[in-house]
Amino acid sequence: MEPLALRLLPGDDLRRALEAAVAGRGHAAAFVVAGIGSLRPACIRMAGAQEIRRIDADVELLTLSGSVAANGSHLHLSVSDLHGGVTGGHAGYGCIVRTTAEVLLALLPGWHFAREADAATGWAELVVRAPAP
């Protein structure tokens, strides 16, 4: 594994920036180890839901984890509002960094992650291809 620490800037789309950082370094597989920061808005898909919920308010990014594949990501996050209420789910595109996002990625050189349709779940699921021994 190769660690990559990032600080994303105000206006960055959280998910797009992470995908671009991995691809920009020539990798096709990474895990998000941790992430904190602030967002506005936050776009979250709740478990089992088809639609994205947009929270158009200042929120703190409490947790971020997941995988980044060559053709998409599976990221989970939790955010808190000004009253301390916490919401979590799948991070969608459109989670915009408000002041900062500090993220630690674990790049996996030689590995290839892809998202492919899975008839058993109905979702595009992770397919892992390890480097040849």
Per-chain topology:
Blueprint: E1 2-8, H1 14-24, E2 29-39, E3 42-45, E4 53-55, E5 59-69, E6 72-80, E7 86-91, E8 97-107, E9 112-117, E10 124-129
Antiparallel strand pairs: 1-8, 2-5, 2-8, 3-4, 3-7, 5-6, 6-7, 9-10
Question: How do the SSEs run, as a string of H and E?
Answer: EHEEEEEEEEE
Using the alpha-carbon principal axes, give the shape: globular
Cα end-to-end separation: 16 Å
Name the CATH superfamily classification: Hypothetical protein, similar to alpha- acetolactate decarboxylase, domain 2
Helical segment count: 1
CATH topology (fold) name: 60s Ribosomal Protein L30, Chain: A
> Major sheet: order of its strands?
1-8-2-5-6-7-3-4
Radius of gyration from CA coordinates: 15 Å
Low-confidence stretches: none
Mean pLDDT: 97
Q: How many discrete domains?
A: 1
Structural class call reads mainly beta
The helix fraction, in percent, is under 10%
> Which CATH C-level class is it?
Alpha Beta
Total E-strand runs: 10
CATH architecture: 2-Layer Sandwich
- Biggest sheet descriptor: 8 strands, antiparallel
- In terms of DSSP E residues, the strand content is over 45%
